Amino acid sequence: MGQNSSIQLSERQGDVVQVAKGHTDQQIAGLLYIPLRGVELERAQIMRKLEVSSSSGIVLYALETGLINPCPDEEAHPRRARSDPRRPS
Length: 89
Description:
CATH architecture: 3-Layer(aba) Sandwich
Order of helices and strands: HHHHH
CATH superfamily: Response regulator
CATH class: Alpha Beta
Number of domains: 1
Helix content: 55-70%
Low-confidence stretches: 77-82
Number of helices: 5
Mean pLDDT: 80
């Protein structure tokens, strides 16, 4: 996967990856004001460009390149942050 970190996504493809966190394709389409088919096509192009066969490959690319943050925002997920046994009280 390290070789994929030099691959550049288009601006729209980057938007799809960033907005995708926790959203369905329908929600992504609504947030980006594009048709559902557009989201599906962008995802297929991203997977082809990165030479991956699943969404997890896209996630790995996004993490490696800093396109998405690996740490969830505690404000957005207060229950998860409070109930994590590894977190000091």
